[in-house]
């Protein structure tokens, strides 16, 4: 039995810097957005935003190997 893989925490500091600094959103506009809306405003694709980390991917490959 393999250990559960913990998801990485949401990068709030990076998102706040991007939303408030780079995009120059007001705090009200920033905090009313969903993470998915913020990612779209930043030009990030949903696929890239939801991609697992290399560590998570490797753990999944070990847990579910191709046969």
From TrEMBL:
<dbReference type="InterPro" id="IPR019056">
    <property type="entry name" value="Phage_TAC_6"/>
</dbReference>
<dbReference type="Pfam" id="PF09550">
    <property type="entry name" value="Phage_TAC_6"/>
</dbReference>
<protein>
    <recommendedName>
        <fullName>Phage tail assembly chaperone</fullName>
    </recommendedName>
</protein>
<dbReference type="InterPro" id="IPR011739">
    <property type="entry name" value="GTA_rcc01693"/>
</dbReference>
């Amino acid at each position: 039995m393999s250990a559960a893989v913990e998801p990485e925490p949401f990068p709030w500091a990076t998102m706040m810097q991007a939303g408030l600094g780079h995009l120059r959103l007001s705090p009200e506009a920033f905090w009313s957005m969903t993470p998915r809306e913020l990612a779209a405003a930043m030009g990030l694709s949903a696929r890239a935003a939801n991609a697992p980390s290399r560590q998570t991917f490797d753990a999944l490959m070990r847990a579910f190997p191709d046969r």
